[in-house]
Design brief:
The protein is α+β, with helices and mostly antiparallel strands. Helix content is 31%, strand content 26%.
Amino acid sequence: MPELDLLSSRISNLERIVVALIKWTDFTWKQFHQQRPDHYDIDEAEILRNYAQENKQCVDLEPPPSSPGKRTLPTKHFPTRPRVDTVTSLRGKPMISMNGFFFHCIANGDISKRRIWTCDQRTKTKCPVRLHSTSEVSDLRLIVEMGVHNHPPDPAAGRVRKIMNPDRSPHDNFAHSSQSSGQLQIQQSPDGGGGSALLQSSTTTFNSSVMYYPIMQS
């Protein structure tokens, strides 16, 4: 049958190709072993030794991998937990005033009994500073300060302090102050720069909590 003859012929050709390929591979392998020197001369050995030493030094000097995007902020702990001053924002929310910087509360943990505060310039200047304090607003105690401010503190002449009622919460103080009436008087800026502000006086009992109002500089 012609089909069987054709198939047999193709198989024979394939066998011859395989045998030739095996012989060529064996010959090439023998030639490689015959041409390879049994040992390196002094120059080649020295080059290989120096290359290995350089690679070892590069591996030793390589810094350990770190998590991408993760930064370590300078941290300062306060074992004695000093008390911090509290102020009330124009929205009636508590803030921390410390060394001319002001902080907003962004979290209050019921389990950890801690409040987390961020600098009020976080959005404007990307300030990374954070504070951890106790949770009780009436008696805030500083626990941890993290980061360094990337901006100067607010000048004392830039804001006007209003003393609040000690028996009220910051929100109640804000509502009470907006309803109470009093006399308006002009107060000179502490720096004597000619700026003035309207300070509303009240017959309310005073406390160390303060509310900040922006002023118009002349």
